[in-house]
Amino acid sequence: MDRFIEFATREWSLFLAAGVILALLSHGLYRDLTRKYKKIIPARAVNLMNDDDVVVVDVRELKEFNAGHISNSHHIPLDKITDRAGELEKFKDKPVLVTCKTGARSDMACMKLTKLGFSNLHSLDTGIDGWQELNLPVTKITKKKRK
Questions:
Q1: Do 85 and 25 share a structural domain?
Q2: Distance, CA of 133 to CA of 143 (rounded, Å)
Q3: Helix 2-10 × helix 12-34 angle, to 10°
Q4: pLDDT for res 14
Q5: Cβ atoms of 94 and 54 closer than 8 Å
Q6: Which has fewest Cβ within 10 Å: 29, 49, 58, 114?
């Protein structure tokens, strides 16, 4: 035991770093265990869309949405999700798949929607980027040129 204490005092920075890493891992694990929505990969999202009457909500900005989105997505930018949640009220108990570019904004949207009483939320973990990497279909909106 004395040798351990001697080692710990001599290598205090190593123990401090190990403590910080342990704390960060514990925080991430706690967050994952207490999350009230599911993070899903594109393959699971496809299964969900095929099996259930799922509602897809895309929280990216309009320009991103127009460049390519999952067909029949409701476009509600993240900064408007709380104000426009009423548009989704009728889907409160249905499966709702939230998408963005990489999954970060969809996580934030899911947290906001959870606080508003939505109970069956799914966040596309890799976002539209991951969706498109797998060559899954997207719908694009292009502006028509005026004559």
A1: no
A2: 25
A3: 90
A4: 82
A5: yes
A6: 29
- The structure tokens 């067909």 sit at 71
CATH number at residue 85: 3.40.250.10
* Catalytic residue list: 100
| Radius of gyration from C-alpha coordinates of the chain | 21
- Give the chain's residues under pLDDT 50: none
Number of domains observed in the structure of the chain: 2
Output the DSSP codes for the chain.
Answer: -HHHHHHHHHTHHHHHHHHHHHHHHHHHHHHHHH-SSEEE-HHHHHHHHHHS--EEEE-S-HHHHHH-B-TT-EE--GGGTTTTGGGGGGGTTS-EEEE-SSSHHHHHHHHHHHHTT--SEEEETTHHHHHHHTT---B---PPPP-
